[in-house]
Amino acid sequence: MATTWQEQLRTAGLRVTRPRLSVLQVLAERPHADVDTIVSAARALHPTLSPQAVYGVLQALVSSGLARRIEPAGAPALFELRVGDNHHHLVCRSCGAVADVDCTVGAAPCLTPSDTAGFVVDEAEVVFWGLCRECRVRTPGVTAQVLQHDNRGGVNA
Amino acid sequence: MATTWQEQLRTAGLRVTRPRLSVLQVLAERPHADVDTIVSAARALHPTLSPQAVYGVLQALVSSGLARRIEPAGAPALFELRVGDNHHHLVCRSCGAVADVDCTVGAAPCLTPSDTAGFVVDEAEVVFWGLCRECRVRTPGVTAQVLQHDNRGGVNA
DNA sequence: CCGTTTCCTTGAATCAGTCAAATCACGGCG
DNA sequence: CGCCGTGATTTGACTGATTCAAGGAAACGG
């Protein structure tokens, strides 16, 4: 990372504070962390940090483009520092683990819908649902069960 | 609709009750309704209907495959009766309006990620974010503002 | 080093959704 | 046609994630 967190914050017009640096550090170590995780981990760096402070910091980071908020259905929000590089996410239905997926295709046909119903689209968000390797190994029979509760059928496309 | 709601419920192994028929009716008239909307509208058909009953009904419908639950980030869950036909959604950042998008492409390259990080993927969910026609007309300057708060950049693909 | 502005803390409130116990009614059986 | 058992609904309380508001503290320009 050529630029430091300090520089990034200043460039974004934000003051450099201990809570913000702590949160940034945590997010750098753990991409896709939820608020709870961030609070716990950041307290190692700043023991008096309050959850509300973390919410405030995250909102500031997201608003200024330093962080991105993702909200998998049925789970608390997650935050990541990878921004502006067009990537999507794999989410495990069983444990909630999240992995990044680079979008290899420049102009994906499915992502520029023919009929936009009068909408002006500025972003296409893709979430891949499945089971991570650990969960598949741990509970081999889970697939059918899990699928039953969510949308059935194969991969939508 | 060749089959009646009664038949669909019985086929799914569910009892035919007034709350369920009311909710189905409402969903048929208003695709993409949230729980609040469903409760209000369904009370016209069944005045003593409780919110918890609606939650129960919706859970039963989703579990049995008669309805689908969608959860746009930052909004309460929405429900629809279109199931099993691989379609996605357009969501208005301003008013939350939702429209269906048929997925015209059979095998979309972006939807079978090359590197699945060990995940077994069973569904690809796509959400197109933008502004609906009404919101664009109503508040022509909103686009920039709105985008500032969410992920910036052009259409991810 | 001081003042202004922004940020963090503390405490309370909101909202969506869930849990649990008791009542009610669908629909099979006699 | 009416009874019974299972499953559904009602009522009420509760959790968990997130937000709001007021006062105090800290950043940073001068």
TrEMBL record, chains A, B:
Its cofactor is Zn(2+). It comes from the Bacteria. This is Fur family transcriptional regulator, ferric uptake regulator. Belongs to the Fur family. It comes from Geodermatophilus africanus. The keyword Transferase does not apply. Keywords: Cytoplasm, DNA-binding, Iron, Metal-binding, Repressor, Transcription, Transcription regulation, Zinc. GO terms for cellular component: cytoplasm. The keyword Membrane does not apply. It is found in: Cytoplasm. Binds 1 zinc ion per subunit. CDD domains: Fur_like. GO terms for biological process: negative regulation of DNA-templated transcription; regulation of secondary metabolite biosynthetic process.
